[in-house]
Design a protein that fits this description.
The protein has 144 residues and is mainly alpha-helical. The chain is 49% helix and 10% strand. It has 5 helices and 3 strands.
C-alpha cells in the first residue's frame, strides 16, 4: 500500500529512520478509507501529470515546487513544466523519497523556511513588477 497508495518506493521506506517510517504509516492510516478521497486524487492526478494547458505564466506569487525523481505518481515532469513557466518559481527535486519525500523531512522543512523568509521581504515588489509588465521567464533552481 505504501507504493500503490502513497506513491513511495518501499525501498525508500525500508531505508528510512524509525520516526520517518512511523510518519509514513501515520499518513497511510489518515488517508484511509481511500474512497472518501477519490475525487481529490483524480484532480491531483490531472493537475500534476498533465499540466501543459494551465496559464502558469500568470502566477505572480513566488512559488516553491518540491518533488522527487521517484514519485510513483509521476509528478516530476509536471513539476518541471510548472517550475519553468511560473515566473518566480523555485523547483527542488530530491533523488528519492517518493511522493512523501521519505528521508528528506529535515531538508524539506529547511527549504520551506528559507523560501518563506527570502520571499516574504520582496514578494510585494515582485507582484507589482509582474502586474506592471508581462511576466519574464526566470530559470528555476533544481536541487538534486
Amino acid at each position: 500500500m505504501i507504493e500503490s497508495i502513497l506513491a513511495t518506493p518501499i525501498a525508500d521506506y525500508n531505508h528510512a529512520s524509525l520516526p520517518e517510517q512511523e510518519r509514513v504509516r501515520a499518513t497511510l492510516r489518515e488517508i484511509l478509507p481511500i474512497d472518501a478521497r477519490l475525487q481529490g486524487l483524480f484532480a491531483d492526478a490531472a493537475v500534476t501529470t498533465i499540466p501543459t494547458h494551465y496559464e502558469f505564466e500568470r502566477i505572480v506569487t513566488p512559488t516553491l515546487i518540491i518533488t522527487s525523481q521517484n514519485d510513483r505518481f509521476g509528478t516530476l515532469a509536471g513539476s518541471r513544466i510548472a517550475g519553468s513557466r511560473i515566473p518566480y518559481a523555485r523547483l527542488i527535486v530530491y533523488p528519492s523519497g517518493g511522493h512523501l519525500w521519505v528521508g528528506h523531512q529535515g531538508e524539506l522543512w529547511a527549504a520551506i523556511q528559507e523560501f518563506l523568509k527570502g520571499d516574504a521581504v520582496d514578494s510585494n515588489q515582485r507582484a507589482a513588477r509582474a502586474y506592471a509588465r508581462p511576466p519574464l521567464f526566470q530559470a528555476t533552481r533544481e536541487r538534486r
